[in-house]
Amino acid sequence: MNAAVLAAGLGTRLRPLTEVCPKPLLPVLNRPLLGIVLARLEEAGCWQVAVNTHHLADQVHDFLRTQPWSFHLSVSHEPEILGTGGGLRQLGEILPEGPFLAVNGDILTDLDLAEAYRRRRDGAVSTLALHDCPPYNNVWAKDGQVVSIGPPPPGAAPEAKPLAYTGVQVVDPAMMRYLPVAGQGYDLVQAWREALAAGARLACFTAAGHFWQDLGTPAHYLAAHQRLLAGASPQLVRFFPGLQDPLVGPGARIGTGVVFGGGVCLGAGVVVGERASLKNTVVWDRAVIAPRVELADCIVAAGVEVKHSARGRVLAA
Q1: pLDDT digits over 182-234, tens only?
Q2: Residue 17 pLDDT
Q3: Backbone angles phi and psi of 144, in degrees to 5
Q4: Are 268 and 253 in contact (CB under 8 A)?
Q5: In the chain, what is the straight-line distance between the N-terminal and C-terminal CA atoms, in Å?
Q6: Cα–Cα distance between 231 and 309 in angstroms, integer?
Q7: CATH class of domain segment(s) 244-315
Q8: Where do runs of H (alpha helix) occur along the chain?
Q9: How many CA atoms lie within 13 A of 76 on its CB side?
């Protein structure tokens, strides 16, 4: 099984965090998100993986070079961002001929990736893994096939309801005819719509009972930590040895009288001053929380010194 990881996004909704850290390297429970995605592909049995990069690409390249992956890893750098469709086309041209798994690099899920690949439908340009996730439901399907993306299809039954794309699909080489030639920007959703308009079969299956979390906003990023620390995904626990709440990174120092209110993750070398209080807060490496500071629903970027209490804020240099 071969796989492509779409990891070239700018992460604009996560600014200012992504001004210094590319979205694929956002730490999730002190582990880079891209590292978790690749470890899951490794576990699923992938033997070749291609990843695209753009924003702060040098950081991503350095990370990829330092990891002992068991699969062959290829990197597709985009000097000009190509969008989800253009990026997928370029990754598909790197991988060997044949179907491949494609995964969005900004979601965290314990969906069985090997099983998703096995559910590929013959004769389909792509097979999408869908699920019921109301904030994102906009894919209309019937009898294992996508019939519309966005508005309901003509003649849709009143009881019909759309599903959401999980960010996981199996791409057939036939899909490439609906994607631009390598080096041109394009949107994947538009490519799916063009495939449907041309009469191509866009297959799907519905997944259920899995953990899934988008990390595209600060609120979603915090939600991922809160859910994982609460034990929402027993399948992902093995990727986070010693998981507990609070999760305390190596070399962190915690003063006397500190209160943790749940959903707290401290990175390596973090210092929390005496009598500080933290709840639903993620603190990146080497940050310093002054004594008696109270933080709730906050993200503290690496190396930042926090001297004043805050709620619902991203604290960056």
Answers
A1: 556 688 999 999 999 999 999 999 999 999 999 999 999 999 999 999 999 99
A2: 94
A3: 75, 15
A4: no
A5: 42
A6: 28
A7: mainly beta
A8: 33-43, 57-65, 83-94, 113-118, 188-197, 218-229
A9: 25
Q: Which helix (H) or strand (E) holds 278?
A: strand 277-279
DSSP secondary structure code for residue 19 in this structure: G
**Residue that is written with structure tokens 């880079």 in the block:** 32
Cβ contacts of 123-126, under 8 Å, gap ≥ 24: 123/201, 124/172, 124/200, 124/201, 124/202, 124/203, 125/171, 125/172, 125/174, 125/175, 125/178, 125/195, 125/200, 125/201, 125/202, 126/169, 126/170, 126/171, 126/172, 126/175, 126/192, 126/195, 126/202, 126/203
Considering the segment(s) 2-214 as one domain, its CATH architecture is: Alpha-Beta Complex (3.90)
Contact 110, 28 (CB under 8 A): no
pLDDT, tens digit, for every residue of 273-304? 999 999 999 999 999 999 999 999 999 999 99
| Paired sense of beta strands 107-109 and 212-214, if any | antiparallel
> For 229-252, what is the mean pLDDT?
94
Strongest mean pLDDT among 6-10, 64-68, 77-81, 311-315:
311-315
Place of tokens 């906003």: 217
What is the residue extent of each domain of the chain?
A: 2-214, 244-315
What token pair was written down for 161? 């309801």
Under 8 Å between Cβ of 207 and 107: no
| Backbone phi and psi for residue 129, each to the nearest 5 degrees, phi listed first | -85, 120
